[in-house]
Design brief:
Length: 278
């Protein structure tokens, strides 16, 4: 009896083990298809971005000039020489007919006085802000050799001694000076873009204005406003390098805002230049 029960239990366990066993699924020998990696997309660079923020602003100046002249977008695209850098931001074009921005113009002494007075207000403003600000970014642009306030003061004094009444600052200069003061408190990058364009435009376009006005109104006198001590291209290059260095630490958003401010700068300055013929 004992042996029979043991046999039954043994057989029962054997059946249970047999019924619970299931063979492992066959391992597939087919290899999985290769995983396709997404190609990394790189952001398209802005015109001039590889060379620095000042080169980006130069392209803005080029575009504005083409718009003003009614030229196509393909003109001057690969103008990258140093001469191009100095001429594309011109507020005045050196045309044979004495044109400003491609239009024939006749300067008046009253208008030129307004231009000098408003220009002095603008240069006084940017130079005071740079000298007095506690922002370390502005310290790079002190005593660059490009300062114009002192020369303008001498010119206006000479004109006063000739018996002419020096006018008060007019709306274009007052508006721009106010805007610069407000902008300097908000953002050093945006203010410095105006700073650069003010000097760049004066050096590039100011020479054309000087020749035309001196010939027509001042009997060929050379104004202090258009005289510098030292190598002007070298001085401007130093400012350009410092601004590009700072620009390397700006976000793309800050640079885009800077380019918008460059457009505003040229428009403000254009309004002041137009005082000459009003």
């Amino acid at each position: 009896m004992g042996t029979g029960r043991a046999l039954i239990l043994c057989c029962s366990d054997s059946l249970s083990i047999s019924s619970s066993y299931s063979p492992s699924p066959a391992i597939s020998t087919t290899s999985a298809p290769p995983v396709k990696r997404r190609r990394k997309r790189y952001r398209r660079l802005y015109p001039g971005e590889s060379k620095g923020i000042t080169e980006e602003m130069r392209f803005v100046a080029m575009r504005l000039r083409r718009v003003n002249k009614g030229s196509s977008d393909d003109d001057d695209q690969d103008s990258s020489s140093e001469d191009g850098k100095e001429r594309e931001g011109n507020l005045a074009s050196d045309d044979d007919d004495g044109g400003v921005g491609g239009a024939t113009w006749e300067p008046t002494l009253d208008g030129y006085l307004k231009y000098l007075v408003d220009s002095k207000l603008v240069f006084d403003t940017v130079e005071r802000i740079v000298d007095e600000s506690s922002d370390v970014a502005y310290a790079y642009f002190r005593k660059t050799g490009l300062e114009r306030s002192e020369g303008l003061a001498k010119d206006l004094e000479w004109i006063r001694l000739q018996g002419f009444v020096i006018p008060e600052s007019s709306n274009p200069g007052v508006s721009y000076a106010k805007y610069l003061n407000e902008l300097a408190e908000k953002s050093a990058p945006l203010f410095l873009c105006h700073f650069y364009n003010i000097y760049f435009s004066h050096i590039a376009g100011g020479q054309v204005i000087a020749r035309q006005v001196s010939k027509k109104l001042l009997e060929g006198r050379e104004m202090e406003f258009y005289r510098w001590e030292g190598d002007v291209p070298g001085l401007m290059s130093g400012v350009r390098e410092k601004l590009n260095m700072l620009g390397e630490h700006w976000s793309r958003d800050e640079k885009n805002k800077c380019l918008k401010e460059a457009t505003k700068s040229f428009r403000f300055l254009g309004q002041i230049v137009r005082l000459i013929i009003l």
